[in-house]
Design brief:
Helix content: 55-70%
Number of helices: 10
Number of domains: 2
Radius of gyration: 21 Å
Strand content: under 5%
Oligomer: single chain
Largest sheet: none
Structural class: mainly alpha
Distance between the termini: 42 Å
Shape: globular
Number of strands: 0
Order of helices and strands: HHHHHHHHHH
């Protein structure tokens, strides 16, 4: 399947930004330059940041829409790469590196998958970087808790098996979400649709035969996984409760629209397939 232009430039920009993960290998192979990486690694990373953003500006200076995409995708890639290096070179902060990688890849891949499967709905908001004030507060809280624990209770961040479990939850959850977007294609949208669009069909195959809302199940698993990965007990509970409430309300509202769109077909689908998130039943509880 051919990718639209926005998908191509997003992919190339993310790869360009994240290419800094290759620096250790490159400087190791070019041993006569290894001292630059060993002694001046911060300067090397700053040069990479300036160079990548400089190229973006030079190439897309007269293409504002494309520039907005490459800046977001490219800098998400740079941040992803920094997370990778942090996880490789710092024992103390390696878990935070994992978190940065998971967070940045999640947001970039939301845009990328939308561009590949439902380009008509594609906007800058598809990155989900401006999702909500509550989302930003939650992300900030998770960082604060991790740093407080790492500085005051360092033993809290040494449970590697727990962190690995969280990493698997995050990767698995993100994979499930992207698989649900790929399966639904043009029938998937980041926003609740109150009017049925032409060509909109009820998707009941693939992962949708297991969960009615696999994208929400994936997001829920991903968000909890990031907190397990960071060994954040307080934020884990907070994420579990707040995210559950959010998805409960969203699924309830969304299923009102889906029942209006598909009627008896959706009622039958509800009877056969669960939402996927524990104790969330959707609109059918009122029937």
């Amino acid at each position: 399947m051919a990718m639209i232009r926005q998908a191509r430039i997003s992919l190339l920009s993310f790869c360009a930004g994240s290419s800094l993960i290759l620096f250790p290998l490159v400087f190791h192979c070019l041993s006569f330059l290894y001292f630059l990486w060993r002694d001046l690694w911060l300067a090397v990373l700053l040069i990479h940041f300036v160079a990548v953003n400089g190229v973006f500006s030079a190439v897309y200076v007269h293409q504002k829409d494309s520039y907005r995409v490459v800046v977001r995708a490219g800098n998400l890639g740079i941040t992803f790469g920094l997370g990778f290096l942090l996880s490789m070179y710092s024992t103390r902060w390696s878990l935070f590196g994992w978190y940065i990688m998971s967070l940045t890849f999640f947001h970039w891949s939301e845009y990328q998958m939308t561009a590949m499967t439902n380009p008509k709905s594609l906007t800058l908001e598809s990155f989900l970087l401006d999702h909500s004030r509550e989302y930003k507060i939650a992300a900030a809280a998770s960082c604060v808790e991790f740093f407080v624990e790492a500085l005051l209770l360092p033993s809290m961040t040494t449970f590697r098996y727990i962190s690995l479990l969280g990493a698997m939850m995050a990767v698995g959850g993100d994979f499930l979400r992207k698989l649900s977007m790929w399966t639904a294609r043009t029938n998937f949208n980041h926003y609740i649709q109150h009017t049925k669009q032409d060509g909109h069909v009820l998707v009941t195959w693939g992962v949708y035969s297991v969960f009615r809302h696999p994208s929400y199940v994936g997001w829920y698993c991903w968000s909890l996984g990031t907190q397990v990965m960071l060994c954040n007990p307080i934020c884990l509970v907070m994420y579990a409760v707040v995210s559950w409430k959010f998805f409960s309300e969203r699924i309830f509202d969304e299923e009102i629209c889906l029942l209006n769109f598909f009627g008896e077909d959706y009622l039958d689908y509800q009877r056969k397939v669960p939402t996927g998130i524990p104790f969330i039943y959707g609109y059918k509880q009122l029937l």
